[in-house]
Backbone:
């Protein structure tokens, strides 16, 4: 699933759909306009409350990073991954992937363009 989630970030044609590139399926959301990923074990819908940008003192007007504060408006938990009253998620079924944080260097993405061409 990790590869499918990352597929839309390739240099895919503008006219193509992110859903087609990822081979994942859309599921309707209830409180936001965007769709959610049907295969995901856990989804959170939310509304943006505030955005804090951190500016670069060496390059005025440029942003180094941003923190987005959101208010959760809806939680989705895949059937069979929580207890009967949905108060606890079985973490062994959550399977977040091999790493939830990472840093990618240019050398990691050097051949991404070739992969996107293979998709056409």
Residues:
């Amino acid at each position: 699933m990790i590869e499918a989630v990352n597929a839309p970030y390739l240099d895919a044609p503008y006219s193509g759909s992110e859903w087609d590139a990822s081979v994942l399926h859309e599921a309707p959301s209830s409180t936001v306009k965007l769709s959610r990923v049907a295969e995901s074990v856990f989804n959170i819908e939310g509304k943006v409350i505030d955005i804090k940008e951190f500016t670069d003192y060496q390059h005025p007007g440029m942003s180094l990073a941003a923190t987005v504060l959101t208010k959760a408006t809806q939680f989705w938990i895949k059937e069979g991954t929580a207890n009967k009253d949905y108060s606890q998620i079985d973490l062994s079924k959550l399977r977040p992937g091999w790493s939830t944080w990472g840093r990618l260097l240019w050398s990691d993405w050097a051949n991404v363009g070739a992969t996107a061409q293979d998709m056409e």
Notes: Residues 98-103 have pLDDT under 50 and may be disordered. The chain has five helices and four strands. The two ends are 21 Å apart (CA to CA).
